Amino acid sequence: KAGVTQTPRYLIKTRGQQVTLSCSPISGHRSVSWYQQTPGQGLQFLFEYFSETQRNKGNFPGRFSGRQFSNSRSEMNVSTLELGDSALYLCASSLRNSGANVLTFGAGSRLTVL
Amino acid sequence: GQQLNQSPQSMFIQEGEDVSMNCTSSSIFNTWLWYKQDPGEGPVLLIALYKAGELTSNGRLTAQFGITRKDSFLNISASIPSDVGIYFCAGQGGSEKLVFGKGMKLTVNP
Predict the structure, then answer these.
(1) How many CA atoms lie within 13 A of A60 on its CB side?
(2) Rounded to 5 degrees, what angle do the CA atoms A89, B61, B96 make?
(3) Cβ contact, residue pair A101, B43, below 8 Å
(4) Within an 8 Å CB–CB cutoff, is residue B99 touching chain A?
């Protein structure tokens, strides 16, 4: 079955712009999590969505937001971009039935803010 | 929030050598996961551990869930060039949110 698909893979924006990233989870997976990866900070949790509801949220400013659609596809949005937002944004999906939350990651969207 | 201390941060080894890395936590976890990330890709799950004391192998990889539930280690035996990448540990506690270590960058010299 198809894996987690993230689009776009690469994008360049300038400060002050906004960006929307998309994630299609593995078929049947209802949970989608987003992470920001930077060289110095590793994987930082942004948020998790399950059945269109935000289930968990990390310590990021309100400029970072997300949503999940009825087909489990998810988008995240970053408004008023800053240079420090340059990172690899990873989406991961899981079954999230109960117990362990084993994530399957997409290849990521690499955002560069100039 | 929960913190994972992953060490070492990087390793440079010769092909054929064994590698050990570990993660420790300030709190108890119910699940430990080990991922590997190749350049330009997302992390891929290597091994999942669900019970304290559990020792699990996947080919040349062996991982253990520490008996205190606050640590885990991963061993790679007889390393090969394709083992190059960043290895992440991840733990899941009561909050159900996965917490990741900062990663261990492995370089294998042929």
Answers:
(1) 25
(2) 45
(3) no
(4) yes
Structure letter (DSSP) for residue B83: G
Beta strand pairing status for B71-76 and B19-25? antiparallel
Contact between A45 and B103 using a beta-carbon 8 Å cutoff: no
- B66-103 residue pLDDT tens: 999 999 999 999 999 999 999 999 998 876 778 899 99
What the block records as the tokens of A6 is 């993230």
Backbone torsion region of residue B85, taken as left when φ is above 0, otherwise alpha when ψ lies between -120 and 50, otherwise beta: left
Tell me, yes or no, if B1 comes closer than 8 A to chain A by beta carbon.
yes
Share of chain B above pLDDT 90, in %: 85
Pairing of strands B104-109, B85-92: antiparallel
User: CB–CB of B54/B34 below 8 Å?
Assistant: no
- One-letter amino acid at A69 equals F
pLDDT at B34 over 70: yes
Q: Which two tokens stand for residue B70?
A: 């606050």
CA–CA separation, B56 vs A67, rounded Å?
Answer: 36
| Distance, C-alpha A107 to centroid of its chain | 11
Each residue of B15-24: b (16+ CB within 10 Å) or e? eeeebebbbb
How many CB atoms lie under 10 A from the CB of residue A110? 17
